[in-house]
Amino acid sequence: MEDETFEVGNGEFSAEEYTGTAHADDAFAAIKVRYEAGEALTDKEMDAIADVAVTYLRQILALFGETSSSIDEYDGDDGELILDVNGGNLAVLIGRHGRTLDALQLVLSSLVSSRISFFYPIVVDIESYKMRRKKKLRSIALSAAERARRQGRVALAPMNAYERRIIHLALVDDGSVTTHSEGEDPNRRVIITALTEQL
């Protein structure tokens, strides 16, 4: 890894320069221009962003005494970088309904955005909690849509923005119901309405 270099713009930078000092700001500035122009980033550029994110995440985990956890990196369906932490006693970092995990993700995203000078979507997961939760939410959405078709309207329990989005996306192609959100955070919830009720 020490000898690996990345070509960005008109320059070539080492992996250490990406995550350290040297020309890192210039390198990330070039990546920012390409990313905001809608160009696909190279694997090396993606690795550079991931290296920064993993470094910060390891530092945060160390504050909780977790120094031996493994972090798996992979690309999400919507182009986001997913960091899945495994091993150790990590339940405290998930929290009730994933709220602590959401806060951890927000802090990490802020740190990474500050370092690379642009927002790149990052999802932090712990032992695939969010993936399991996503499957459960899709199941809840389908079940609630079925109830809405019988009852006319169903209000789900309050959810955060990420979870509400999963519900909306799960039903976006269902021609028999519509979805919208009502209320103020943290009590904002998805309402599923049968289309026949609106006719």
What is this structure's SSE topology?
Elements: E1 5-8, E2 11-14, H1 15-19, H2 24-36, H3 43-63, E3 70-75, E4 81-86, H4 91-94, H5 99-116, E5 122-126, H6 129-151, E6 153-155, H7 161-171, E7 177-182, E8 189-194, H8 195-198
Parallel strand pairs: 4-5
Antiparallel strand pairs: 1-2, 3-4, 6-8, 7-8
Helix pairs in contact: 3-5, 6-7
Provide an overview of this structure.
- With 199 residues, the chain is α+β, with helices and mostly antiparallel strands.
- The chain has 2 domains: 123 residues, K homology (KH) domain (GMP Synthetase, Chain A, domain 3); 68 residues, Ribosomal Protein S8, Chain: A, domain 1, CATH 3.30.1370.50.
- 50% of the residues lie in helices and 20% in strands.
- It contains 8 helices and 8 strands; from the N terminus they run ββαααββααβαβαββα.
- The strands form 3 sheets. It has a 3-stranded mixed sheet with strand order 3-4-5, with helices on both faces.
- β7 and β8 form a beta hairpin.
- α6 crosses α7.
- The N terminus is likely disordered.
